[in-house]
Write a structure and sequence with these properties.
Layout (H helix, E strand, L loop, with lengths): L1 H7 L10 H11 L6 E4 L7 H11 L5 E5 L4 H7 L6 E6 L4 H8 E2 L2 E2 L7 E3 L1
Parallel strand pairs: 1-2, 2-3, 3-6
Antiparallel strand pairs: 4-5
Helix pairs in contact: 2-3
């Protein structure tokens, strides 16, 4: 659903069904991505594993975490992922809220800093 909304807004997207596929895409294409939209509940490696991979390999690649878990902030802090996690969004997600956050007026969030929370 999110990929389709971003594509309709004119963004090129890649979609990974499994964590291993996400890691491969990031290894190959990290430089071209504005950010990674990441569900923590994904087949191995899970979202925390992928976020840790991003933190270690491409720490300038922002992560937007999408989850239905209320303990999400604690898990991000425990794993010390605040350096890469820029936004936390709880499900259900309105793509029209994310699109302007990711890319507005020709500016990608990859060039901003800080963590935010959308409710």
């Amino acid at each position: 659903m999110l990929a389709v909304a971003f594509q309709r807004a004119g963004f090129e997207t890649d979609v990974a069904e499994r964590g291993a596929e996400a890691v491969t895409l990031i290894e190959r294409n990290a430089d071209k991505y504005c950010c990674v939209l990441l569900d923590l509940n994904i087949a191995p490696p899970d979202g925390l594993g992928i976020a840790n991979f991003i933190r270690q390999q491409t720490p300038n690649l922002p992560v937007i975490v999408v989850s239905g878990n209320a303990d999400l902030i604690d898990r991000i802090q425990q794993e010390d992922l605040r350096a890469v996690v820029r936004l936390v969004v709880m499900k259900p997600v309105d793509p029209q809220t994310l699109i302007p956050y990711v890319h507005t007026s020709g500016h990608c969030i990859r060039h901003d800093s800080g963590i935010a929370h959308l409710d």
